[in-house]
Amino acid sequence: MIFQPFLSSCVRKLASLTSFLVILLLECLLAAGQNPGHVLAAPATGPQTSHPGDISAIQHIVFIIKENRTFDHYFGTYPGANGATTAVISTGQTLPLLHAPDPPPRDISHGWFDAIQAGDAGKMDLFDIISGANQNGDLLGLSQLTQSDIPNYFNYAQHFVLADNMFSSIQGASFVNHLYTVGAQSSDIFTQPTPSQVNGGSCDSIPGTYAYVWNDDSTVTQTFPCVDFTTLADELQSAGVSWRFYASPLGTPGYPFTTLAAINHIRNGPLWVNMVDHALFNSDAQSGNLPAVSWLTPTSGNDEHPPSGTCPGENWTVNTLNAIMSGPDWSSTAVFIMWDDFGGFYDHVSPPIVDKFGLGPRVPLLIISPYAIAGKISHTQYEPSSILKFIEERFGLPPLTARDANANSTADSFDFTQNPLPPDILSPRVCPFISPSFSMGRQLVGVAGPATPMTFVNQSSKTLTISSIATTGDFSQTNNCPASLSAGKKCTISVTLTPAMAGSRAGTLVVTDSDSSSPQTTNLTGTGTFVSLTTPGNFDTVVYGAKTTQAVTLANTGSSPLTISSISIKGPFTQSNSCGSMLAANSSCKITVNFVPASSGLLAGALIVNASDPASPLAVYLRGTGQAIRLAPTKLTFASQAIGTTSIPQTVQLSNPSASSDLLLGSITAAGDFAANSNCPHTLAPGASCTVSITFTPSQTGTRTGAVSAVSSDFRSPQTIGLKGSGT
To answer: Cis omega before residue 359 (within 30°)?
Structure first.
């Protein structure tokens, strides 16, 4: 299609994350001959065909939403699928994806800015710079599981349909992606609600909770995470089609994924009766009491959200599907199992652009039904709206937004004329007592590294007697495990790497116990190095045109000189150094790192040193926040003022520090006993300024405080001016 080159240009421009991002996107759409008032539907990369037979053979649709995994992380090794087993990282290296520890040791950052920066304008080569993706060289974000880790998911893929071109809805994390699963939109929200809380992402969030909104006029504002738009549940209700949302109750850890709790008219209206505890689903399935459409989200611990492991989550899925398959409705049911967002894990496929929010990184999708095409790997471009479209097609409902209107339906993964597939009843497996593999990352030779905790779980049905816990190689351990560990109970084993020499180091952690599967073994890996790089702190918030500086020390702790071939940097940073091409033994040099943002929001980068050490290249990761608006001053203090009288105005200069992009302005408002007016236009040209005039009219005696908020296209808008005065 003639606009494909323009889409590539769009991707490159999106990655810059300038405050004028939306204008660049619209420019691309206009250049491509598209109406910017409508969604650009990315073409399917696989065939979109009509399904054989009558879709009304499906009487029950179950939409299961799990958490935080990419396609490559789960199915990168699946035969015949578009998977990857290697990845390019910020250093330019192509590395094999590591065998993922299971359970993972932490949750990787996976928000809006993480997804866009990791994708790097479609190159998909900066996943290691995401916060938490590569701590101390462990490359957790560049890891994957294999068939032996998730055998039942592979089984379902072999017997039913695996989609390898399924994308998350938006470049971001769970809250916004879950909104798309009910409404094909996020009400223009693009971030997780802050602060994190047990009832977060709902109308039950604590007062003051907020998420960022990218408005139609391209400004960014904050909103409470209780929104209102028409959902598929509303359309089902109006059409007389039965539905339920099975999820975690209020006050429990899984409640943030009870998505309809964020829709005001449902949470606080009569449709809330359709929200039921997820624990009721299996009994409803087995008794033939399923509605026509079910959403189902697991409880925390079974949702596969790191640091939860995959095995308990896979077992939960097996039990759920067994309940459906052994119930009376199996013959007329379609089940969709998807993972909501990328979770910070690597995927090699660049997401298509369909609008300014998405699509997001690729995620797994399993389609399970008697009418699913057995063994099919669907290459059709899907997103969660594709599942909504299938439901709409089945029940004759109109689309909710341009997203589901333009999405490819999942109907092409079905053949309603085939002999129905039989149930595939599986047995939940016994989960590993401890992760079968674990990377300890990089550590100085002869220096004990940080103690890394690993969880040991008695997965058997009886008390376990632990007779010994030992390590081999350059690894040591301490633990709090008792001699007798009750069924289902946990203890912690903390492992330390102390490399005896540079280069790759390998060993094992071995737990000998009374279970028939004993010993429980973890393969340990790490890297010894003679080179260290200090890690700078966060560079905080910096306005365009300004910079902040931090020092990084490069040290050679070895007895031989270190040859330095290059020192380079990624992201909105610059560096200078005194290191030269050779660093003497037991010496160090200084690298000066400057943060010089040209885009707004949370930004990341990397300082990379290529040297003669076996652990080379070495990288440290850099963080800062760019700001596209300058306010001077940012605080005002007014003289004492008589109650009910108005002060002489004080002024603040608002300027656009960018040399190339317009700054879009929204409302400028005052709170407290203060008033503000301005001569600021909606569009402030590069380098231009305007004036905000502020007055103080005290309503009471004593100290009075307030603020002026300026809404703009900065991705952390609004910015505020602190105000203070005294009433007399």
So the answer is: yes
d(CA 264, CA 213): 17
Please report, for residues 56, 75, 140, the alpha-carbon distance to residue 148 in angstroms, rounded to integers and kept in the order given.
37, 12, 19
3-class secondary structure, 328? coil
Q: How many CB atoms lie within 10 A of CB 487?
A: 12
| Residues linked to residue 365 through DSSP beta bridges, in sequence order | 163, 338
What integer best gives the mean pLDDT of the chain? 92
| Exposure b/e, 413-422, CB count within 10 A at least 16 = b | bbebeeeebe
Checking if the pLDDT of 528 tops 80, the result is yes
Q: Choose the weakest-confidence range: 34-43, 199-208, 249-258, 712-721.
A: 34-43
**Cβ distance 32 to 306 under 8 Å?**
no
Is the distance from CB of 638 to CB of 725 less than 8 angstroms? yes
Q: Which two tokens mark 146?
A: 């294999």
d(CA 360, CA 111): 10
Distances (CA, A) of 241 to 96, 275, 314, 394, 445: 48, 15, 30, 11, 66
Tracing tokens 């005896």 back to the chain, one arrives at 500
Of residues 29 and 513, the one with the higher pLDDT is: 513
- Cβ-proximal residues to 663 (8 Å cutoff; 6+ apart), any chain: 19, 20, 628, 629, 656, 683, 684, 712, 713, 714
Distance, first Cα to last Cα, the chain:
70
Q: 691 in helix, strand or coil?
A: strand
List pLDDT tens digits, range 186-225.
Answer: 999 999 999 999 998 999 999 999 999 999 999 999 999 9
**442 — phi, psi (to 5°)?**
-105, 140
pLDDT category of residue 52 using cuts at 50, 70 and 90: confident
- What confidence tier does 50 reach under pLDDT thresholds 50, 70, 90? low
Rounded to 5°, the CA angle 560-561-563 comes to 135
Q: Which two structure tokens, joined as six digits, stand for 557? A: 């702790």
In one-letter notation, the amino acid at residue 311 is C
142, 357 contact by CB (below 8 A): no
Q: In what order do the strands lie in the sheet with 587-595?
A: 531-533, 548-556, 587-595, 573-577
pLDDT at 51: 75
User: Rounded to 10 degrees, what is the CA torsion of 247, 251, 255, 261?
Assistant: 90
For the CA atoms of the chain, what is the radius of gyration?
28
CA distance 66 to 156: 16
Amino acid type, 350: S
Average pLDDT over residues 508-526: 97
pTM value surpassing 0.85: yes
Q: How far apart are CA 622 and CA 620, in angstroms?
A: 7
CB 455 within 8 A of CB 492: yes
State how far the Cα of 229 lies from the Cα of 262, in Å rounded to an integer. Answer: 10
Beta bridge pairs of residue 626: 542, 601
- Report how far residue 126's alpha carbon sits from residue 390's, in angstroms, rounded to the nearest whole number: 35
How many angstroms separate the Cα of 718 from the Cα of each of 228, 326, 348, 601, 656? 22, 54, 35, 12, 14
pLDDT tens digit sequence for 63-104: 999 999 999 999 999 999 999 999 999 999 999 999 999 999
Mean pLDDT, to the nearest integer, of 436-450?
Answer: 95
By the 8 A CB rule, do 485 and 464 touch? yes
Euclidean distance between CA atoms 78 and 377, whole angstroms: 10
Burial (0-12, 13-18, 19+ Cβ within 10 Å), 624: buried
Which residues, 6 or more positions from 4, have their beta carbon under 8 angstroms from its beta carbon?
none
Q: Answer yes or no: is pLDDT of 47 > 50.
A: no
Peptide bond into 52 cis (omega under 30): no
